[in-house]
Design a protein that fits this description.
Elements lengths: L1 H22 L6 H30 L4 H30 L5 H32 L2 E2 L3 H36 L2 H39 L7 H17 L21 H36 L3 H6 L21 H39 L10 H9 L3 H27 L13 H4 L6 H10 L9 H6 L1 H5 L2 E2 L1
Antiparallel strand pairs: 1-2
């Protein structure tokens, strides 16, 4: 068991660190990076603990260590998702000028959200009383049950989309002509988004400059306006090439000098406009470069002329590799870009498609029956007490199920406000974590049958055990 931990935990920590550095924008505070990194690590570590929990259940080993690790990971994720992270997120999103005011704004927005959620929970309690239920699980058990139910319901929709979309998209992208059409459409879409973001950023800069001119030095709002002016100067220093163009005033755009709240709204709008502009610019450049790699570097042309070029990759954007092994590297690049990559993508799509089919079959036969049709259940029971093989057999499909869920979440997020952009993701989007690892892990455990025994994870997360709701 410890061998699996010694390998998987450092890999998980490295993956979280790399992902965070890859997506985090240049102005994300250190405490946000630490909070997000710890939240991601706790959520992903559940996926590592579950395979070890399964193996200890199969061999009948002592589970004290598993219970400790599971309790630390689950309750850390629970507290971060429902309390700590929303507070930091509201604080980072607020445009107020003092720490106290930003905290008040965050607490106010979160209080409104949890009032709505609490009302739904209260309705559930009322229904339990009407149905003559006997609830003796305590507030913690009930909160845990509500959280797990939310994750199971929403995760099921996201999970189902990813199961079919991931293999299908990999297979489609292996086709160069289809990939060119997708990239052309994406570049056109990103160009429109970038133009709109540039227009909004220009408008806000012009509005901020006009507002600054009409606030006198003796006005009590001048101190707030000075903060915004310093923001503008910092933006100009960071990107001197940006020139506001076409700034236009709306109906209420000159009403920001009313009080400190309107000044906070102007500061927040300026910061969001800047972040949106650089986010769309980054996405546009990435889409254009990918299209150039496929079209200008002409992967198809290199494949067709491979005999004429003596199987050497010829790039239109750069020269050939120099040095003693230059010709060999050019050949390796042609083989990879024009032959191996396409075939490996198709092979990966077929493998993932088979795994998706196996998961769907297991989900369809999840109800108790005399025949176990779950491939994962058969495999885990077949390997018996082989520790490493058994844990890998549980880890791979569980990781794939989580990838399917988060893939769907990020695909939807691209249409909304929490998409992740390489090196341009702000604090609010980074903090927009949704912990689906516990309910997905619980769903996976229902797909396997461990000869009538339950893991520590199941015993604790099981809704019946958590809330002890029984009909009288």
């Amino acid at each position: 068991m410890w061998v699996f931990y010694l390998i998987s935990l450092p890999l998980t920590l490295s993956m979280v660190t790399f992902t965070l550095r890859y997506f985090a924008g240049p102005h994300v505070p250190t405490y946000v990076l630490l909070a997000v990194g710890y939240a991601w690590f706790c959520s992903i570590s559940i996926i590592i603990i579950v395979p070890a929990d399964i193996w200890t259940t199969v061999v009948g080993q002592e589970k004290g260590g598993i219970a400790f690790f599971w309790g630390w990971s689950y309750w850390s994720t629970f507290a971060l998702t429902w309390a700590v992270v929303p507070t930091i997120q509201g604080y980072e999103d607020a445009g107020d000028f003092t720490m106290t005011e930003r905290l008040k704004t965050s607490m106010r927005y979160n209080l409104f959200f949890y009032t709505c959620v609490g009302s739904i929970g209260l309705l559930g309690l009322i229904l339990l009383v009407i149905m003559h239920g006997n609830w003796s699980g305590g507030i913690v058990g009930f909160s845990m049950a509500c959280s797990n139910t939310f994750g199971l319901v929403t995760g099921a929709f996201l999970f189902g989309f990813g199961l079919s979309e991931i293999p299908k998209s990999i297979w489609r992208n292996a086709d160069w002509s289809n990939r060119q059409k997708v990239l052309s459409h994406r570049v056109a879409k990103m160009a429109v988004n970038l133009d709109n973001a540039h227009q909004e950023f220009s408008n806000v800069i012009v509005i901020a400059q006009a507002t600054s001119k009409q606030i006198s030095k003796r006005d009590f709002l001048r101190r707030y306006m000075d903060v915004i002016d310093r923001m503008l100067l910092q933006m100009i220093r960071e990107d001197p090439s940006f020139k506001p163009s076409g700034g236009m005033f709306g109906e209420n755009d000159m009403d920001y000098d009313t009080d400190d709240k309107t000044m906070a709204a102007l500061r927040r709008r300026l910061r969001k406009a800047q972040e949106e502009y650089y986010r769309y610019r980054s996405e546009y450049v990435a889409s254009v470069m990918e299209a150039l790699e496929l079209e200008v570097e002409d992967t198809v042309k290199n494949y067709e002329l491979r005999n004429a070029t003596e199987w050497r990759y010829v790039s239109s954007l750069r020269g050939r590799h120099a040095g003693k092994f230059g010709s060999f590297l050019d050949t390796i690049e042609l083989v990879w870009r024009c032959i191996l990559r396409k075939q490996l993508e198709k092979l990966l799509a077929v493998v993932l498609g088979c795994m998706s089919a196996a998961i769907l079959l297991a989900e369809a036969t999840i109800l108790p029956s005399g025949v176990d049709l779950s491939f994962f259940s058969i495999l885990i029971n077949a390997v018996g007490k082989q520790e490493m093989v058994g844990q890998i057999a549980a880890f791979v499909p569980l990781m794939y199920m989580c990838i399917c869920t988060y893939y769907s979440l990020f695909k939807i997020g691209m249409l909304m406000f929490y998409s992740l952009t390489p090196r341009q993701t702000n604090s609010v989007r980074l903090l927009m974590i949704c912990s689906y690892a516990p309910p997905i892990s619980y769903n996976f455990l229902n797909l396997i049958r461990l000869r009538g025994t339950k893991t520590v994870f199941e015993k604790t997360i099981d809704l019946k055990d958590s809330t002890k709701i029984r009909r009288k």
